[in-house]
Amino acid sequence: xxxxxxxxxxxxxxxxxxxxxxxxxxxxxxxxxxxxxxxxxxxxxxxxxxxxxxxxxxxxxxxxxxxxxxxxxxxxxxxxxxxxxxxxxxxxxxxxxxxxxxxxxxxxxxxxxxxxxxxxxxxxxxxxxxxxxxxxxxxxxxxxxxxxxxxxxxxxxxxxxxxxxxxxxxxxxxxxxxxxxxxxxxxxxxxxxxxxxxxxxxxxxxxxxxxxxxxxxxxxxxxxxxxxxxxxxxxxxxxxxxxxxxxxxxxxxxxxxxxxxxxxxxxxxxxxxxxxxxxxxxxxxxxxxxxxxxxxxxxxxxxxxxxxxxxxxxxxxxxxxxxxxxxxxxxxxxxxxxxxxxxxxxxxxxxxxxxxxxxxxxxxxxxxxxxxxxxxxxxxxxxxxxxxxxxxxxxxxxxxxxxxxxxxxxxxxxxxxxxxxxxxxxxxx
Length: 429
Ligand code: ATP
Ligand code: MG
Description:
The chain is α+β, with helices and mostly antiparallel strands. It is built from 14 helices and 16 strands. A hairpin with a 2-residue loop joins strand 2 (32-39) and strand 3.
């Protein structure tokens, strides 16, 4: 048994091969069925001629609709008109499972494709995206492994909210209320005291009520935390990690990237260091572009797009005003209105992909900020303990995996970066 990709080769010409997969497209004319077969590796044309296969096989080939699962045996021949340049001239056509009236045809509404997501994930787009995603992830894991980070498994059900309480999902937890995690950060922070450098990949949950093309209610969050790390080195970790992810995707998935209209060469060129732009400077740049922003304005999709749409390499925006960011970030001694933090923006207008900071180590400062925000101190008692017993300078960040995939695969909407997107409007299938 060969994969489709293996069969599509000059070396196979004249040989009898077997391939199996699903019918991607089929038509018959006269005594010939042209069935294009797909498997994980690609598509290949097969021709099933009356007389060249048994009568039953020919009948089955005529009956087998799109998405029927089949095994085809035949001779590989060069054919310039066929996708990939080769075809298989069948001598056997064996059906595993017929598929009748597959409900997805060429032009379908986005809504229908979401209703039929369990079938749409078989599409070539979704297949390419899934492979690129896995490849990015493998690149990340390799980088972490090579740099002696320990992968850890923080909880998903939590008692406290690390980010905004307005986007928390509540769950009934026995006879009390708990929350689905928005970030593993606090737990990762607690683990650096023994493991030094840690990372985790977990789903994060955000009840994002506004419908934007870059927010999911459930996304995969790659987070890291390291002891003894200050903010500049935290950014170095991000640029190295992302470069490693991108280069791995280029190495493993050049065809999938090209299929998604992403030229692998643009990713290959991305290397550290990435530009660091001060928040203040970002404001001035935006004002020059005619946007109505001033000190204290948050960077939303529009602002992030304006800053990055002409770039091909990610850039950091650093040192945000404190009022825009959470209480646990470290004050910037060079400008105490700001934190030692960074948001990493994808190029080409795709927006924020990573948020990171050095963490505050002074409990008094954090208590003051929590009180100002009207938060219950009791909830953070365990977190504040971490600073009481052998506190060390440390930093970390959170990377939204689907945000990177959206950029790398040039997707219009983040929902296509995940097999089963969860949004305000959809939890089915
Ligand atoms: P945004 O301003 O875009 O809502 P955020 O400031 O809420 O992002 P963080 O809390 O810093 O984001 O989360 C870390 C990373 O997780 C972000 O940089 C982004 O890549 C990703 N992320 C955040 N929220 C979502 C979401 N709803 N869907 C997908 N990815 C997300
Ligand atoms: Mg948010």
